Fold this protein.
Amino acid sequence: MSIESSNPILNIGELAKPATVLIEKVSDAVGCLYEPTKIKRLASAESEAARIISESRIQITDLERRAAQRWLEEEAIHQRNMEGITAMSIPLLKADADPDTMENDWIANFFAKSRVVSDKDMQHLWARILAGEANVPGTFSRRTVNVLSDLDKGVAEKFSRLCGFGWTVAQHFEPLHFQLNGEIYIRHGIDFNALSNLEAIGLVQLQSIGLQMKVNSPSCIADYFGRPLVLELPKEGENSFDIGHTSFTSSGKELSRICGRRPVDGFYEYVKEQWKQYLPEVNKS
């Protein structure tokens, strides 16, 4: 199989303009992904190394030869990973995506972190970040990219499960974690150790005394995966109510949008019980 035909970007059909612009933008920032009129950087590196050795008659040791071979093999893996992530991102691009305004420094940092990722599930996560940034440049910060680079597959799965406990309240998405050792959380792998790991990475913050959501209204709507819940609050002005012990950091909020979160069976009813004092009489049963 030729070098170019093994490129996954060539197997996704005719590219729309946003996809073409993204590939060109990535190539400008990190080196060639696919350009039919050019030799890919890996093949070019091999050719250049052979030329230098031939023309200069450089005598290299076995150790140097093994080092050069290792470097070429690593570059091949990195190239394959970058191409795979880019190919996965293309179907996620919107028709009005504007990848041309993406910052080159952001792209370079993104691929410096993601090129070592070979796991397909994790590559899909990275692809959603790339597509999200291409769709709306500025959506994901460099800090979030750097945080993602510290996530292994197991921790990423824990974060996705935590997001399954997330509600949108007063336009803020937060995990409602009322009991640090609550059975419904433990059953889904969200125990204190899992939360501590997510906090150490920089995705959540834990508060032992509990967190309060503030709203300037006598009522508000909380939403759980499209299931709304109306809360009636006691005062006309500012009100506050308990939302548990865990909140997302800014990076956690950004990653929560693309983590593949799913609702937890029974959690809507569990939250209704926690907020029972704020529910209209008709919704308390």
The chain is about 45% helix and 15% strand.
